[in-house]
Design a protein that fits this description.
The chain has about 240 residues and is of the alpha+beta class. It contains seven helices and eight strands, in the order αααββαββαββαβαβ.
Length: about 240
């Protein structure tokens, strides 16, 4: 019985991992298509930084090259007009501010799905601009700490035009001004620091600390359900990170 139980557990874990991988590829494909559309049809990552970020994310996720190319070609094909970026704002349980970035070919469906989670999980769906002022756009570059000491990385990051650097387990997270993300990335690469992740993010101006475990679990459950939607690309909140 123990062997059968172990095999069942492995199958469930593998199934969950495959599903997560599929969702990741879907989200990245949509990000690639939207990046090309937003640029007016520029399909060269070297001339379209938003596309470069999406392609880098695809490679980091081990997305096949053919999938990347299909997503790029989709943006200039007959179905290009159906996919668009949509941003939603609102409040998670306990009044936590939330911004949701989505890519969808059916805004009515996506809006309905997101509103349903807000209603069922104790959140409040907001109007455009209701929480956006509580966040600022920044650049985030993730590098491995095994390539330099943390002090060396900090010095290189600052010399490259970054604003800050913080440690996160075996990685170092470099923060830049949104407008400087591309130039800082290039300078780091020239100095031999190859990023493992580069993205534009929305950083909360005043993170909120939630100490009550029950309340915290409710908030995280809400955020997980929003992130689990196929059309959702990224979810930002002002919940303080522990």
């Amino acid at each position: 019985m123990s062997g059968h139980s172990k095999w069942a557990t492995i199958k469930r874990a593998k199934g969950a991992a495959d599903l997560k991988r599929g969702l990741t590829f879907t989200k990245i494909s949509n990000a690639i298509t939207v990046a090309v559309k937003a640029s007016g049809g520029i399909t060269d990552p070297n001339s379209n930084f938003k596309l470069r970020l999406a392609v880098d994310s695809a490679r980091s996720a081990n997305m096949p090259k053919d999938n990347i190319e299909r997503a790029i070609q989709k943006a200039v094909g007959k179905d290009a007009g159906k996919l668009q970026e949509v941003i939603y704002e609102g409040f998670a349980p306990e009044g936590i501010s939330v911004i949701i970035e989505a890519a969808t070919d059916n805004t009515m469906r996506t809006t309905s799905e997101i509103k349903s989670i807000f209603n069922k999980e104790g959140g409040n769906f907001g109007q455009p601009g209701s929480v956006a002022y509580q966040f600022e756009q920044k650049g985030r570059i993730v590098v491995g700490k095994d390539i330099r000491t943390i002090d060396e990385l900090f010095e290189i990051a600052v010399d490259s035009g970054a604003e800050d650097l913080e440690e996160a387990e075996d990685k170092a997270i470099i923060t830049t001004a949104y407008a400087d993300l591309s130039s800082v990335r290039e300078r780091l690469i020239k100095k031999g620091i190859i990023p493992v992740g580069v993205e534009a993010v929305r950083k909360p101006l005043n993170p909120v600390v939630i100490s009550d475990p029950t309340k915290l679990e409710k908030i995280i459950n809400f955020l997980d359900k929003i992130e689990g939607l196929d059309d959702v690309q990224k979810v930002y909140s002002n919940l303080a990170q522990n």
